[in-house]
Amino acid sequence: MAAFEKNFIVDSAPDEGTAPVDRQTEFVGLLGQNYRALYACAVSLGADLHQADDIMQEVSILLWQQFDQFEPGTNFVRWGRAMVRNVFRNQRRSQWHRKHVFNPLLIDKLFEMHCGEEELLEIRGLALQRCLKKLSGSDRKLIDAFYVKQHSLTEKAAGMGRSANSLHKAISRIRLRLSQCIDRQLGADRD
Amino acid sequence: MTESSFPAPTRVQIQRMTERLLTNTISDEEFEYFEFLLFNSSEARQAYIEHVEIHSQLSYLSGAAAPIEEDVFAGRLNRGPVSLGRIGLLAGVLAGCLLVGGLLLAYQMVRHHQDRVAQAKMESEIPVGMMITSNQEPRQQQSSRHSPVSRGQVLAPRAASDYRFRLSNGVDCTLHGPARLSFRSPFEVQLDQGTLVANVPPGAIGFRVETPSAQIVDLGTTFSVSTNESGASELRVFQGAVSARSRSPQGLEAEPLLVSAHQTVQFSPIGEVQSVTIPSPDPNEVLRGLSQLYGIRQLEGAIALLPASPNSVQLGKLRSDTAIFLIHERSWTELSEPLQVVPPTAHTYSTPGHFTPLELPAGTRCDSFLLHCDFQQRTEPLSGRIVFDRPILGVIFSSDALQQSDRFVALKGLKYPSDADVFEKGLSRGCVSPYAGKSEMEDQVILHEDGHSLTVSLNSPGGNMDQIRVLVQAFDP
Fold first, then answer.
1. Whether B62 and A24 lie within 8 Å, measured CB to CB
2. Shortest distance, CA B251 to any CA of chain A (angstroms)
3. Residue in B28, B64, B76 nearest the CB of A147
4. Of B39, B67, B71, the CB nearest to A109
5. Which of A70, B21, B348, B350 is most buried per CB count within 10 Å?
């Protein structure tokens, strides 16, 4: 939620003849609570981080535009996920020219699985926080630097005195270690 | 190739392929293979999603998720400046628009209402599962057996009566009265009162039970939930793990609680949570529910069903002088290779005993059980009988064959005797030997003519232990 809270600034000035401010507040609260899950859903369907950002921009707008149709007390994240899938499908068709994009039928299966794993992913998220604390200082710095958005991969790599390829490999190794750490914590490492 | 017949790749394989996808170092051929794996294996999809989640979480935690640069509210809030000279014209246009808009809105509302009614009717008619058995009165039983259950349908068995049903995603449940349960979808039920015992296959992870005091979400497991009249609930996990949130009048607790096998958690209607270990003995309805889910019609003599799987069935780790333990290992397992078993035809086996093995072909779907007998001090045999509600496909009682079949049907997380224990240290975990030997001389396995039952008599004093694996036909309503 940190990224959402930092970056999402709401113009809460009263405005005549528009939706009440408390409705906006409700929307912002719901989107803030569920932004991470929706963002993760986009990534799990095969979007890279930039594409996931694009999808979330559009999803946020669409959710707000259709917020009147959202029934309070029902599941916002389920509603939002359906929107993520629709936007993902549209953007996939019209904008992306990536070499490796999943088959639409597989996307549907991944979507179903992601919805079903909601709670488990939340628990794994808590385990990830614990595993991050076990990383060495240098690995943690590498992760922080890698996921900072403002610079390109080449710039980040140059800043760390590495090649882009070696930076990718190092990050990949750290993610695998984190995955195994989480699996160990939750007893899912029994192949 | 169907999904279920595909041998699952390991988590580590999937994690590594996911990394190559994330770092754009995956080749065309490997990507094609990766898609194939993900398409055909739910375990592969789960491993992929869990690994890629780390990537998105790290991005999110580092604040790298992009700011919402466009004003989401622009369409609602930002009005351009309007000159005074145009106000009259705008007012006229606005009045016209309001009139037409009002008529359109009224029409849309009627249509919307009609659509919603039609949709609700259609949804309520979609079956979410199938009733399997009920021990209601005979007349009710006839009408409820093998009938579909639909979205919104309410089951309300009275005291001392049970329902068993299977949802369309494979979730197998028993409901014990007095109870009240309503179906929201194959993935969600509301339990207002009574005891629900659920066995959830991997493909239905995320199955949710809502009670007045808790929200319980399965993570691939066997569990029970009991709710009393006051709304308090008790969750017991027998295998795997579930996620649970307490519910109070203020709403759901934000952070979920991970509840693992052997744990019991109680939720009060005001949101208080208490975690305790499973007390013994278990309530009858839970054991009865588990027996029904596992297809056990009757247990006699010294055989006792363990509700939660033990940590180990290695020598000396699970001992009793009064019980032969019955452990449910797996449901709906499909053999990926042929497996040799003792045929299920009626016969009495004792040491020294020979049999002509039967080969169960690859693709056979079965449920697997392990009988375990390891005495502390006792020297006399214990005996008992099990009756299943479906045919026995085969029995395994030699040490070698037990070791071999562990690969197919062993319960994840349960420690079995290792190959070194059996083949190097000479541990006998079986119970009927082809050769005369003192340790197995008093063991006997009787397969009955009905094809659904067996009787065992086992003696396992000292450093000896006896195990028998029973494979029964997978449940298919």
1. no
2. 10
3. B64
4. B39
5. B21
Tell me the nearest-neighbour CA distance from B454 into chain A, angstroms.
Answer: 32
DSSP-based helix, strand, coil % in chain B, nearest 5: 25, 35, 40
Q: Which amino acid is at A33?
A: Q
Q: Do A18 and B59 touch (CB under 8 A)?
A: no
CB contacts < 8 A, A to B, total: 198
Non-local (6+) Cβ contacts of A117 within 8 A are B46, B49, B50, B205, B206
Tens digit of each residue's pLDDT (9 = 90 or more) over B219-255: 777 899 999 888 899 998 888 788 888 888 887 776 7
Helix, coil or strand: residue A57 = helix
Structure tokens at B333: 């397992």
Is-above-0.80 flag for pTM? no
Asked whether B236 and B264 are in contact (CB, 8 A), the reply is yes
List chain B domain ranges: 11-76+84-125, 127-277, 294-473
- Residue A140 is encoded by which pair of tokens? 């943690």
* Contact: B63, A3; criterion CB under 8 Å: yes
Architecture of domain B127-277: Sandwich (2.60)
Q: And the tokens for B186? A: 């194959």
CB-based contact B60 A36, cutoff 8 Å: yes
Q: What tokens appear for B455 in the block?
A: 């009787």
Q: A128–B31: do the CB atoms touch at under 8 Å?
A: no
pLDDT tens digits for chain A (191 residues)? 334 443 443 333 334 444 556 777 788 888 888 888 999 999 999 888 888 888 888 888 888 888 888 877 778 888 899 999 999 988 776 656 667 888 888 998 899 888 888 878 888 888 898 899 899 988 988 888 888 765 677 777 777 788 888 888 899 999 999 999 988 877 654 33
